[in-house]
Amino acid sequence: MRLLQKCCLAAVAMALFSTGCQAQVEQSTQPNIVLFLVDDMGWQDTSLAFTDEPTPFNRHFKTPNMELMAAQGVRFTQAYSHAVCSPSRVSMMTGQNPTRHHVSNWTRLPGEDHSGKWGPNGAPTHWRTEGLQPSDVTLPKLLQQSGYYTMHVGKAHFGALGTKGGEPRNLGFDVNVAGHSAGAPASYWGEKNFGNDMPVIDGYPQGVPGLTEYHQKAVHLTDVLTQRAKQEITKATKTGKPFFLNMAHYAVHTPIESHQRFMHEYTGKTYAGTDIDIPDIEEKYASLVQGMDASLGDLMTHLKALGVADNTLVIFTSDNGGLSGHTRQTTPRGTELNSHNWPLNSGKGSAFEGGTRVPYIVSWVNNAPKLAQQKRLAITPNSVSRQQIIIEDLFPTILAVANSNAKIPKQHILDGIDVTKHWQNPSSEQTRAMVFHYPHVWGPFGPGYEPHSAMRLGDWKVIYYYNSRAWQLYNIKDDLSERYDLAPTHRSKLEAMAGDLNQRLKQMDVQWPVNRVTGKVEPIMLPHY
Ligand code: CA
């Protein structure tokens, strides 16, 4: 009897042990993943320096939680997205460059092109105005197949209004909070019902869906999304599955409405260290930025409270460069439009660095380097990487983090690369080409806001403008602000990079802009001397 009891106990102990081991293996190979994707956040919209020395912008904005994240993780100073929202978001979802996935501009209504109308060249005839659709290969679908519970919170802007792709749950998300086809909230304020009762312009409603329990309350959308995300994370931890959260804030996109609880930091003040009064709109913008950062901190705190901090990885980035072509006002340098991302030139929608260079940080919520899952995906604390990365890299990178065994269909060609090795070895750098293709007029006149293709390769960047059929060449390492066009003096470099770009575009099944008068496509014209 006693022997039998002993055997039983041993069997139970063995069973418990093996269950424990199994759980440990699963946990160690599949961490939770939070992609914290800010909308329209510029490279300089933070107190965290992405330059060697802090800039006047770093002294103005207050993002303490980004600083904390960078202290325990790695920040990338040369991270890129594409020039506007939907192309970047679809690149994240598919791992493909916009040249290939053909959602080359922001989407609104299927069949309608909302590119700007000035200049000789218009949008390609068959760009995917419907946006991403359920038939496409998507990151969250592959994560689902790999055992993940997938959540989207906030702005989606993947597919056009009235299409299945407008709803994130049709694209691989188990949960969707407040995401739909629109690229901006009609209002950030609960008092205004997040814009649901505002007039619909051009048949395109922008009231934030759901969240009705917060209507008529003095709450800000960023805080509401944070609260809802925390609820969904708590639920996710009870599913027994690892989770992926696409925390995609509507902030800091227009309308630039105040995040009231942070306004006192800026109201009636001058820019730090200057006698320049902070204009009204910039007070509001800074409050939106700080509110977004507070959300990051709140989520980190919540993950710690749930006991999953050691096993949750966070990637922070933005979907395009900071807005600077309209709406914004005087900067901490006393300058005006197209200078809000200084030392980068121009902003969202532009071919210049201000259009595409974005903040990027990755860290564990809590560093526990001896744990198996963190050993597999080691991140060097408080480190800086100059490796050039781009938003389509998120797809293979996140699949690598997830230790995904999901099969990617052969015909689905990836343009992004897995960058996890650069998290562990920030000083390691690999040279790779990054292609930017925006065959549209974004809207305003200004530096780089016209149909263009561009390529970054090593220290160099080449830009082609379809309207003027003009090439520019910059050495970004020496000339971060793209002030000195070297095309006239470095002809062999220009010809090599122009030819390379043209070839890469063709290999990705490029759609060229179309001449508005002749209706003919307008391919790149290579430089000739
Ligand atoms: Ca955006």
First and last CA, distance:
97 Å
Question: How do the strands line up in the largest sheet?
Answer: 6-5-7-1-8-10-2-11
Q: Label the structural class.
A: alpha/beta
How confident is the prediction overall: mean pLDDT? 94
Q: Tell me, briefly, the overall form.
A: globular
Q: How many structural domains are formed by the residues?
A: 1
Bound chemical compounds: calcium ion
N-to-C SSE string, H for helix and E for strand: HEHHEEHHEHEEHEHEHEEHEEHHEEEEHE
CATH class value: Alpha Beta
Notes on the protein architecture:
The chain has one domain: Alkaline Phosphatase, subunit A. It has 13 helices and 17 strands. The protein has 529 residues and is α/β, with parallel strands linked by helices. A hairpin with a 4-residue loop joins β15 and β16 (470-475). α7 packs parallel to α8. Strands 6-5-7-1-8-10-2-11 form an 8-stranded mixed beta sheet, with helices on both faces. It has a 4-stranded antiparallel beta sheet with strand order 13-14-15-16, with helices on one face. It is globular, with a radius of gyration of 24 Å. The structure holds calcium ion (CA).
